[in-house]
Design brief:
With 241 residues, this protein is mainly beta. The chain is built from one helix and 16 strands.
């Protein structure tokens, strides 16, 4: 009888000890901090739309992101358009990457924060944090000579160089441009092509649709048209007649 009582007491003690150990372990676990999930990266879809960064008087940059991986970068400074061009973009791991069509890198920008109305970039386009605000109505307050209307091209423009050497571009409202070039005391060219003007680029094509040339528009006003790397390298300033 005593022997049975001894074994019963031993088993009860072991059971009680295991229960206390489990309870203490549960209390220890309760003291651990609750893990907080990391803040998710903002979706690239939030980028879609037009963003503007203003500095100085009538100086600004506009970024217009579409859903097809294209971004239009426009910069207006010193009373002229410094840039108006379209690039490819990707947004991953807090970094915006801008590339040319051939895949070469144009720029990278760190995304400090992104919300429905603010995009804060680090060390781009200037050092430090640069805060872009989002356009709600998609109607920018751009100056009157912004290069965004092909109608501004209509008329005759002349580029002169040397003695009695020049090129004239005559744009009409029907998508036709007459290109005339006089050099070395003779006409090198006098022909009519088709033209389109979009996203800061002038495109000249033949009637069969084949490409003749492309020219980047640096700036366009009522009396000056500045083209980049066409017809010569660098900036070429045509004046309106």
């Amino acid at each position: 009888m005593k022997k049975n009582f001894y074994y019963l007491s031993l088993m009860f003690g072991l059971f009680f000890g295991m229960t206390m150990f489990t309870a203490c372990g549960g209390d220890d676990d309760g003291d651990d901090p609750v893990p907080v999930p990391p803040t998710p990266q903002p979706e690239s879809a939030t980028l879609i739309g037009k963003w503007t960064l203003d500095w100085g008087t009538n100086s600004f940059m506009i970024l217009t992101f579409d859903s097809n991986g294209k971004v239009r970068i426009q910069e207006y400074d010193n009373n002229q358009w410094e840039e108006d061009a379209v690039y490819n973009y990707t947004y991953s791991n807090g970094t915006l990457t801008f590339t040319y069509d051939d895949g070469k890198l144009r720029d990278k920008a760190g995304v400090v924060s992104l919300s429905t109305d603010k995009l804060v970039l680090k060390d781009w386009p200037d050092m430090g944090e640069n805060t872009f605000g989002k356009y709600v109505d998609e109607t920018p307050n751009t100056p009157p000579n912004a290069p965004n209307e092909s109608a501004s091209l209509i008329g005759k423009w002349t580029l002169g160089w040397g003695t009695n050497n020049f090129m004239t571009l005559t744009f009409d409202s029907n998508g036709k441009v007459r290109i005339q070039e006089y050099d070395n005391n003779q006409w090198e060219e006098d022909a009519v092509y088709n033209y389109t003007y979009s996203n800061g680029t002038l495109t000249f094509t033949y009637d069969d649709g084949k490409l003749r040339d492309k020219a980047g528009v640096v700036s366009l006003s009522t009396d000056k048209l500045v083209l980049k790397d066409w017809p010569d390298m660098g900036e070429n300033t045509f004046e309106k007649e």
